[in-house]
Specification:
- This protein is an alpha/beta fold.
- The protein folds into 2 domains: 1-127 and 226-342, D-Maltodextrin-Binding Protein, domain 2 (3-Layer(aba) Sandwich), CATH 3.40.190.10; 129-224, 3-Layer(aba) Sandwich (D-Maltodextrin-Binding Protein, domain 2), CATH 3.40.190.
- It has 12 helices and 14 strands.
- The protein has a 5-stranded mixed β-sheet, sandwiched between helices.
- Mean pLDDT is 91; it is low at 1-21.
């Protein structure tokens, strides 16, 4: 947090910040190209979304979105630097210009998309708030949590959702608030609270980090809509479009059967006009985004299509073993849908 505050002070002194305290939106792409990398804000450690593996490498869905942006802009997914941020720090870091894009399991809401000076570019993961409890508590439903002590991460939408749910169901609770998700999980494990509430994806991620994960269960209730996705500063449509279409390229690729293994062959040999437009073999749609013709090829080759990203990070082949559910493609019973390149 000290780093964020010092950055704000420096930018204000230099006149980079307006009177609102937000960075002046503008040529983010030019600035990114000049420094040679994308600065991406991620979470401070959430398995499946943004975390460091045993080799110290950043992994996760949110990380792969950032790598995809770098691949689109530079043709190299490694030209990205990561800034781990707590829930409290994340918006200030983006507003101040400390990061170029926020890709940090962040819920798209009306106030964040307007009053906070942010623009959400799409939905990387459809989520919803739930509850994680120790099996010894002996409950099978959130409606049995009357009088419970509840661990919450500060600076998130979970606080209001929790209050609304308990009030509407005439239940009482005692909140205990922490700055990080790890602190909340440790409090649940130590018995200081009866239940941990957060987005269900985060609950599954925190569960596998506990000493005895099989002792804990995620209750069936989903009490909110939590569309998670990347955000950029308002006022820079050029950069907004690049971040948005990075995700759309991954989604369209999965729908068309294009993956990291066959993308180069498809770019050379496909007879499908939709495939050819996406991969730059027909037309020059990258030019509209100020990107190379093969921008989508680079994303898919180096990062993968959306299905590949989902599966390796949070899907059935990962430690989290989360089913696609709402995050399946629209033609497979889910909500994921991307406009066409044409």
């Amino acid at each position: 947090m000290k780093m964020v505050k010092s950055t704000l002070a420096m930018l204000t002194a230099l006149g980079v910040l307006g009177i609102s305290g937000f960075a002046e939106a503008g040529a983010t792409l030019d600035a990114v190209q000049k420094k040679g990398y994308v600065q991406c804000g991620i979470s401070d450690g959430l398995p499946g979304f943004s975390y460091t593996d045993a080799k110290g490498q950043y992994k996760g869905i949110d990380v792969d979105v950032c790598r995809g942006i770098a691949a689109a802009v530079f043709g190299d997914a490694n030209k990205v630097k990561f800034t781990p941020l707590t829930a409290k720090e994340r918006f200030t870091a983006l507003q101040s210009g400390e990061i170029d894009v926020l890709s940090r399991n962040t819920t798209w809401t009306s106030s964040r998309d307007s009053a906070m000076g942010l623009d959400f570019t799409g939905v990387t993961y459809y989520d919803g708030q739930g509850f994680l409890v120790n099996k010894k508590l002996g409950v099978s439903s959130a409606k049995q949590l009357d009088g419970a002590t509840v661990c919450i991460q500060a600076g998130t939408t979970t606080e209001l959702n929790l209050s609304d749910y308990f009030r509407s169901n005439n239940l009482k609770y005692t909140p205990i608030t922490y700055d990080t998700s790890d602190e909340s999980a440790k409090s649940l494990e130590s018995g200081r609270c009866d239940v941990l509430t957060s987005d269900q994806s985060q609950l599954y991620a925190q569960r596998i980090k506990l000493g005895k994960p099989d002792d804990y269960v995620v209750l069936p209730e989903v009490i909110s809509k939590e569309p998670l996705g990347p955000a950029v500063r308002q006022g820079d449509e050029e950069w907004f479009d690049i971040v948005r279409w990075t995700l759309f390229a991954m989604l369209n690729a999965e729908e068309m059967g294009i993956d990291s293994k066959n993308v180069e062959d498809m770019a050379k040999n496909s007879k499908n006009p939709d495939v050819n437009r996406l991969l730059g073999a027909e037309g020059d749609y990258g030019k509209d985004l100020k990107l190379p013709k093969d921008w989508a090829v680079k994303i898919i080759k180096e990062v993968g299509n959306y299905g590949e990203v989902f599966e390796r990070n949070v899907g059935e082949g990962s430690d989290l073993k989360i089913k696609r559910g709402l995050n399946a493609l629209w033609n497979k019973g889910g909500l994921q849908y991307a406009p066409p390149v044409r």
